[in-house]
Write a structure and sequence with these properties.
The complex is a heterodimer of chains A (259) and B (290). Chain A is an all-alpha fold and 259 residues long. Helix content of chain A is 78%, strand content 0%. In chain A, α2 crosses α11 and α7 runs antiparallel to α8. Chain A starts with a helix and ends with a helix. Chain B has 290 residues and is mostly helical. Chain B is built from 13 helices and no strands. The chains are: A mainly alpha (259), B mainly alpha (290). The interface between A and B is large, with 100 and 101 residues.
Chain lengths: 259, 290
């Protein structure tokens, strides 16, 4: 019974990780199409990726969007979480529901609805609308992680700081902020992943010739199956591994998974 | 002015909510209202002042069996992906939640989270590499001499479901792990002490207690799967047609904003119905447990 259970888990793990290995394998396979087993070793697809103007422009746009999303969504999400966790006003629960709803509504609709707005209002698609779309889908993750931390927050620490003569601002800076920091960092990392890997929202909002990396990769994939996509994937994987290690080092994966 | 630490005045709270509220009002609530309005108008009211109310977009959807087939295909993909993710995710989530060594738990979590942060297009590409005619499966079978012609795998519903499941199963596992970890293992031990077999103790005790996790994970995976776009196109190769594909087609190929909006409203109604029934089901299981 136990052996059967462990075998099952092993199979699921293999299912999860095998595709990662496959991508690595295709990235160094010199064949100009998806062919298995690989016929040799080459770095030509990496060279092609890094020298491709389209891919590089898309990479920098995605990075810019991701970083901007982290800072803006991180700030407004944390502020909203603090107000929602501590404010005593009517409609609190409804506001929390509203702010979290982009997680459960089909993301493709969030993108499509924004596209409709841009068309009807006549502004067209631009980088700012794209950023707004990313903020809408990333902020809920920040809000959720910070709210989770605030739920376990011991307020007597803040009261003690105030009792010892600290101003509200000082108490916030010296006590509250350091204590909620893990939640803010976890939320910000989530926000980065959601933005950097965002497809449905970007699909409707990228302007022609100004694409994000996932969109550029998808467009390439429709006509070409060579290793450039695999090389681009390896770069993304490397970024992902750095992030996962970063999470493990700062807050621990178990905290991250709990949130 | 002295006030109790930890509570926030209404005005401060409003000020802190303002930026997020602004973003959500103008870039979330208003766009959905615009979408709903466009679905019942003959033209864009900003450029055509004579735009009038119409139900023709909905009549077109209701009058053509094709749109029902696409909706059914979308829901089927969501349902199959959710069931498969649950069947595959539960054992691993259980193993992670009950792992006694922290190192083992961290390594297992890393194995789950790594594919999740790898990117949607990357993972779809990986499955293209598995399923294509000269890909891993066909390549291996051919080099072993088991087959001479590649088996066509791409373009089938099963292939799309497997790829979607790989993409979304981490969400299921993480949700389940959190819930299972909070269940006291002593409850299961007690059941076994009273003579229940290991399987019976699991079915009677742990499984019902993890129902909230099963529901939450299923809602998440279903919502993600019905809005999938990349995977059905790349793996299904336009053989498997879904609602999101149809919506984008209306926008990019025929630029029929009103009809696309009506399709969007249909998908929105499905999603809202889902969230509503989730709330009902959650109420029932938590009432049954607590």
């Amino acid at each position: 019974m136990r052996t059967a259970f462990l075998t099952l888990c092993g199979l699921v793990l293999a299912f999860l990780l095998l595709p990662v290995m496959i991508v690595l394998c295709f990235a160094v396979n010199p064949e100009p199409f998806l062919a298995f087993p690989p016929s040799g070793f080459s770095l030509r697809w990496f060279a092609k990726f890094f020298s491709s103007r389209d891919f590089m422009a898309a990479f920098w746009l995605s990075l810019w969007l991701g970083v901007a999303t982290v800072f803006v969504a991180g700030t407004i999400g944390t502020m909203a979480a603090l107000a929602l966790a501590r404010g005593r006003f009517r409609g609190r629960a409804a506001l929390v529901q509203l702010f979290l709803s982009p997680i459960v509504l089909p993301t493709i609709l969030t993108g499509f609805a924004l596209f409709q707005l841009a068309m009807v209002a006549g502004t067209g698609r631009n980088a700012w609308i794209l950023l707004a779309g990313h903020l809408v889908v990333a902020t809920p993750y920040v809000l959720r992680t910070v709210l989770a931390v605030l739920a376990n927050f011991d307020r007597s620490l803040e009261e003690a700081a105030r009792g010892l003569g600290a101003s509200p601002a000082a108490a916030f800076r010296e006590v509250t902020l350091p204590l909620i920091r893990p939640g803010v960092i976890a939320g910000a990392l989530f926000a980065f992943i959601v933005s950097f890997d965002q497809f449905p929202v970007s699909l409707f909002l990228v302007s022609p010739g100004q694409e994000t990396l996932p969109i550029a990769m998808f467009n390439y994939l429709r006509f070409d199956f060579d290793g450039t996509i695999a090389a681009a994937s390896c770069v993304s994987i490397l970024l992902a591994i750095t992030l996962v290690l970063g999470i493990e080092r700062t807050i621990g994966l178990q905290e991250y998974a709990k949130l | 002015m002295v006030r109790e630490a930890g509570t926030t005045k209404g005005s401060t709270a409003a000020l802190m909510l303002a930026p997020a509220g602004f973003i959500f009002l103008f870039f979330f609530a208003v766009p959905f209202a615009v979408m709903a309005a466009m679905s019942v108008l003959t033209a864009n009211p900003m450029v055509a002042p004579n735009a009038a109310f119409t139900l023709r977009h909905y009549e077109r959807i209701a009058g053509d069996i094709f749109y029902f087939e696409v909706l059914w295909q979308t829901l089927r993909l969501g349902l199959l992906t959710t069931i498969l993710s649950l069947l595959m995710g539960y054992p691993l989530a259980f193993l992670i939640a009950r792992a006694t060594s922290p190192t083992a738990r961290t390594l297992l979590l890393m194995a789950v989270i790594a594919p999740m942060v790898m990117g949607l297009v990357v993972r779809t590409y990986a499955w293209l590499g598995m399923f294509s005619n000269r890909g891993v499966i066909n390549g291996t079978l051919m080099s072993m001499g088991l087959i001479t012609e590649p088996i066509p795998i791409l373009g089938s519903e099963g292939a799309v479901v497997i790829a979607l499941c790989h993409i979304y199963v981490p969400f299921m596992i993480l949700t389940l792990t959190g819930v299972i970890a909070r269940i006291d293992p002593r409850l299961e031990e007690a059941a076994r002490g009273l003579g229940a077999t290991r399987v019976k103790a699991f079915i009677e005790v742990t499984l019902p207690l993890s129902a909230p996790g099963i529901l939450a994970g299923s809602l998440l995976v279903f919502a993600l799967a019905i809005s999938a776009y990349v995977t059905p196109i790349v793996i299904g190769g336009y053989e498997v047609l879904t609602l999101p594909m149809l919506i984008f087609q209306q926008v990019s190929a025929t630029f029929n904003l009103g009809f696309a909006a009506a399709l969007g409203v249909v998908l929105l109604i499905v999603a809202l119905g889902l969230v509503w029934s989730y709330g009902r089901a959650m109420q029932r299981v938590t009432r049954g447990v607590v």
